Amino acid sequence: MGIAPDGFVVAESILVPAQSGKAIRVRSGTLVSVVDNEGAQVGDLFAISEDEPEEYLSPSHTRQMHRRLFPHLGEPLVTNRLRPILTRVADTSPGIHDMMFAACAPATYRVKFGVEGWHPSCEENFHLALKELGLEFGRIPDPVNVFQNSPVLEGTGGNLELRTAISAAGDRIVFRAEMDLIFVLTACSSDIAPTNGGKCKSLLIEVEQRT
Ligand SMILES: [Zn+2]
User: Fold this and answer.
1) Distance, CA 7 to ligand 1 centroid (Å)?
2) DSSP label at 109?
């Protein structure tokens, strides 16, 4: 147990080791934090409805809903049916996150980075994390890439540049669950692109209860 800076008691703390993922069940109304445990580490966040497995957090629908690349604080992330699923209610990080990039996958490492053979990936870790709960999801939804620093470059007609995350150790995003859901977080496995500063690190999921 510990007290989060936003005044909520941490009921459960789950370490997501470097290059791995964790999935947990979260009830509607619960506050869940993602903590950048060591600094400059991107997390790929997914959420799937507990009651309707065909309904899940959808970055493209969220962009459509808010007509922005990323919602403001307090605006909900929505599902593929445009229903709120998670709302970012607090954020002690610089607030730089991404909703444009797919999760890294075996194909990413092969095609984009020329890696031969196996490399850990958010895609594989998404499926492994669900498997630990006895769940399967036939595909991988697009993620919300928390702490990912990949700005649109002005004057380029839309170029995206992958830069190292500027989040510091201990930076925290608090989400409120808007429905019963499966919350999946992977600590991004990329040690090639500069996203994680060349070193893959751990993240923390903290489930909070109101004091
Ligand atoms: Zn990744």
Assistant:
1) 31
2) I
CA–CA distance, 123 with 107 (Å, rounded to integer): 10
**Burial annotation 89-112 (CB, 10 A radius, 16+ → b, else e):** ebbbbeebbbbbbbbbbeebbeee
pLDDT tens for each residue of 157-210? 999 999 999 999 999 999 999 999 999 999 999 999 899 999 999 999 999 875
Is 185 within 8 Å of 203 (Cβ atoms)?
yes
Taking 60 as the threshold, does the pLDDT of residue 211 lie above it? no
Q: How far is the CA of 194 from the centre of ligand 1 (A)?
A: 12
Beta bridge pairs of residue 36: 171
Question: Rounded CA gap, 60 and 188, in Å?
Answer: 20
- Residue 88 corresponds to which tokens in the numbers above? 């970012």
* Residue 5 alpha carbon to ligand 1 centre in Å: 28
Which residues sit with Cβ closer than 5 angstroms to ligand 1, an ion?
Answer: 104, 122, 188
How many Cα atoms within 13 Å fall on the side-chain side of residue 94?
14
End-to-end CA, the chain: 12
